[in-house]
UniProtKB/TrEMBL annotation:
<dbReference type="GO" id="GO:0016020">
    <property type="term" value="C:membrane"/>
</dbReference>
<protein>
    <submittedName>
        <fullName>Permease of the drug/metabolite transporter (DMT) superfamily</fullName>
    </submittedName>
</protein>
<feature type="transmembrane region" description="Helical">
    <location>
        <begin position="7"/>
        <end position="27"/>
    </location>
</feature>
<feature type="domain" description="EamA">
    <location>
        <begin position="146"/>
        <end position="280"/>
    </location>
</feature>
<feature type="transmembrane region" description="Helical">
    <location>
        <begin position="65"/>
        <end position="85"/>
    </location>
</feature>
<feature type="transmembrane region" description="Helical">
    <location>
        <begin position="238"/>
        <end position="257"/>
    </location>
</feature>
<feature type="transmembrane region" description="Helical">
    <location>
        <begin position="207"/>
        <end position="226"/>
    </location>
</feature>
<feature type="transmembrane region" description="Helical">
    <location>
        <begin position="33"/>
        <end position="53"/>
    </location>
</feature>
<feature type="transmembrane region" description="Helical">
    <location>
        <begin position="91"/>
        <end position="110"/>
    </location>
</feature>
<dbReference type="InterPro" id="IPR000620">
    <property type="entry name" value="EamA_dom"/>
</dbReference>
<feature type="transmembrane region" description="Helical">
    <location>
        <begin position="142"/>
        <end position="161"/>
    </location>
</feature>
<dbReference type="InterPro" id="IPR037185">
    <property type="entry name" value="EmrE-like"/>
</dbReference>
<comment type="similarity">
    <text>Belongs to the EamA transporter family.</text>
</comment>
<feature type="domain" description="EamA">
    <location>
        <begin position="6"/>
        <end position="134"/>
    </location>
</feature>
<dbReference type="InterPro" id="IPR050638">
    <property type="entry name" value="AA-Vitamin_Transporters"/>
</dbReference>
<feature type="transmembrane region" description="Helical">
    <location>
        <begin position="117"/>
        <end position="136"/>
    </location>
</feature>
<keyword id="KW-0472">Membrane</keyword>
Length: 294
């Protein structure tokens, strides 16, 4: 990857390690549905003027059906799953479970990048990490298991969305694509929260600030950077941002929310990261055999 791609990689890694912490704060006073709808609306409102001034919105003409599909699998579905999932599990565990995404991307891209023996070992190792996390950290807690399952389903959705962007929408400017997906998501979710708004006086300042951060930083800015990263580095490498996300999520959860980190969490995290690294290693082209002369 070139320097710009690396800068985008670091930026997205940090920005997408923060949401789990902010979601935990926001859902103290706001419903999960309102948190998701609110961050989408804030993200769209921030980016529509930017895209309009740049004249990139015309790139969405004739593409809205695909953009709506992307909004479903990259925003509406996973955002809701993660936000509701965090009502049952910690923000640090959520961030770690999302790290399985590169393994899923490797499977989805198997046709273009074959799964070698090393990659197979990586896939098995990553899956073992998930088993350790779910088995040790939330065993015996049916609501914890439900929350973990929701987050894992969100990781699957994220992986499919990443592949979808590379294969079908890589030619759409990132600002226009982000406007399209956040606007569609806002329109879909608003009816579900419009008549269930909380009493403003019952919502703390921390929750409002967390929601603003989710919309401006973790949605608008992060998606702009991520879509551009996919265009520069491809979906497999872009998906590797989830290597760093858990580190940020765990640090914020432990330091600021005082969430516990057990042996299962540490072991599962190491297995998942190792598995992801092995399963997404680039395939070396086979050296051409010399043609015998004479």
């Amino acid at each position: 990857m070139n320097r710009r791609a690396w800068l985008l990689f670091v930026l997205v890694s940090v920005l997408w390690g923060i949401p789990y912490f902010l979601i935990k704060i926001a859902i103290d006073d706001l419903s999960p549905m309102l948190v998701v709808a609110g961050r989408c609306a804030i993200g769209a409102a921030a980016l529509i003027p930017v895209a309009a001034l740049r004249g990139t919105l015309t790139a969405l003409r004739g593409r809205m059906r695909v953009v709506a599909g992307l909004a479903a699998v990259h925003i509406v579905g996973p955002f809701l799953l993660i936000t509701y999932g965090e009502t049952h599990i910690s923000s640090s565990l959520t961030g770690i479970l999302i790290a399985i995404e590169p393994v899923v991307i490797a499977l989805l891209m198997a046709n273009s990048e074959p799964i070698t023996g090393i990659r197979t070992v990586g896939l098995v190792t990553g899956f073992a990490g998930v088993v350790v996390l779910v088995g040790l950290d939330v065993s015996g807690d049916r609501w914890g298991l439900l929350g973990a399952a929701m987050v894992l389903l969100a990781a699957l959705s994220y992986a499919y969305a990443t592949r979808m962007v590379q294969q079908r929408l890589s030619d759409v400017p990132p600002d226009a694509l982000t406007v399209g997906t956040t606007t569609v998501s806002t329109l879909v979710l608003t009816p579900f929260v419009l008549f269930r708004l909380p009493d403003a006086g019952a919502v703390g300042v921390d929750s409002w600030l967390a929601l603003a951060g989710l919309g401006l930083l973790c949605t608008a800015l992060a998606m702009l950077a991520f879509y551009r990263l996919i265009a520069l580095a491809g979906s497999n490498r872009a998906g590797l941002v989830t290597y760093v996300n858990p580190v940020v999520a765990v640090l914020l959860g432990v330091v600021l929310l005082r969430e516990p980190v057990g042996v299962g969490t540490a072991a599962g995290f190491l297995l998942i990261v190792t598995g992801c690294w092995l399963s997404t290693r680039p395939v070396r082209a086979r050296a051409e055999e010399p043609v015998p002369v004479g």
